[in-house]
Amino acid sequence: MSQLQNDTFLRALLREPTDYTPLWLMRQAGRYLPEYRATRARAGSFLDLCKNTELATEVTLQPLERYPLDAAILFSDILTVPDAMGLGLYFAEGEGPKFERPLRDEAAIRALRVPDMAKLQYVFDAVSSIRKALQGRVPLIGFSGSPFTLACYMVEGGGSDTFSKIKTLMYDRPDLMHHILAVNAEAVTQYLNTQIEAGAQAVQIFDSWGGALAYGKYQEFSLRYMQQIVAGLKRQHDGRQVPVIVFTKGGGLWLEDIANCGCDAIGLDWTVDLADARRRVGDKVALQGNLDPNALFANPKAIEGEVERLLASFGHGNGHVFNLGHGISQFTPPEHVTALVDAVHRHSRAYHAA
């Protein structure tokens, strides 16, 4: 593997000194880029794009050709794992992901098993291919959905506004809920470890729906299983530490608990005050975030102002990775991302000066 030329992102996650605040964007390879839309059209469908090593590599690198970002993130989807469990993932036009065979009865739940990782070989092939194509420019992030977030899709059968099916199961039959989560946690641990072996240099667990849980239920049904995954991950590979980021959207109430789960960094959504978050977690973990993705619709001067505000909120020192508080919108003007990246790299140096 090529020598890493820019390891600023990895050092920031480990709270080591950096010259500036590194930056990457959730969903940075996506529909806001015309070049992505062109490649997606060539692929035929979103799933075909995920499963085509060459095209998944191409779209992963597209934002890096356009912007001087500090990390690449594997182009894939969190639902690859339940798909490999046989739930029949498909994408309905304009409706997002759906499952043909959601978990709706006890027999189906009891039959759930950790999938053979060979069914996910296309993901690991993409990791290896992207890592090679990067030639050491920046680190590569691997990822997975959290056990609870995956369970939401597996039980609801797709996205949900109310989470009524999963929450009914959780309150009515916590034993079945824990069974799903235990299988998911083991699957995600194997999945992320295989990504690390294939070349991922950091990993992020996306707990997109953990924030929908009540206090106490979050700790029992989401955080507990992420903690189990973190404990089971390979934290050293290729002679380097492999940092782990945990991102619970809506998890700002529970930062102290998340900081105790063994992760290296916490992803923050835009509802969290960086200064307060830093005070609450102390020097236990790094922080990643947390610009409101909709701020990127504003004019470049306003974007720069928001960048300056967030950098000042975190303050001087190390352990901050700049990111959005959630994925970038498909309607974001690409030139506004240029303004964002330039502002972060330009203004953050003052906070890292000796």
Number of strands: 11
Q: How would a textbook summarize the main sheet? A: 7 strands, parallel
Q: What spatial order of strands do you see in the largest sheet?
A: 1-4-5-8-9-10-11
Count, helices = 15
Query: How helix-rich are the residues, as a percent range?
Result: 40-55%
User: In the CATH hierarchy, what is the class?
Assistant: Alpha Beta
What structural class do helix, strand and pairing data support? alpha/beta
How many domain modules? 1
Q: Show unreliable segments.
A: none
Mean pLDDT: 97
- Give me the Rg, rounded: 19 Å
The string of secondary-structure elements, in order, is HHHHEHEEHHEHHHEHEEEHEHEHEH
- Note the gap between the termini: 33 Å
* Rough outline: globular
Q: In what range is the share of β-strand residues?
A: 5-15%
Describe what you observe in this structure.
- By secondary structure, the chain is of the alpha/beta class.
- It has a single domain (8-351), classed as TIM Barrel (Alpha-Beta Barrel), CATH 3.20.20.
- It contains 15 helices and 11 strands.
- It has a 7-stranded parallel sheet.
Secondary structure elements and pairings:
Elements: H1 8-13, H2 34-43, H3 46-51, H4 53-66, E1 72-73, H5 80-87, E2 89-92, E3 96-99, H6 106-110, H7 121-134, E4 140-145, H8 147-156, H9 164-172, H10 174-198, E5 202-207, H11 217-232, E6 236-237, E7 240-241, E8 244-248, H12 255-259, E9 265-267, H13 274-281, E10 286-291, H14 300-314, E11 320-324, H15 334-347
Helix pairs in contact: 2-4, 4-7, 8-10, 9-10, 10-11, 13-14, 14-15
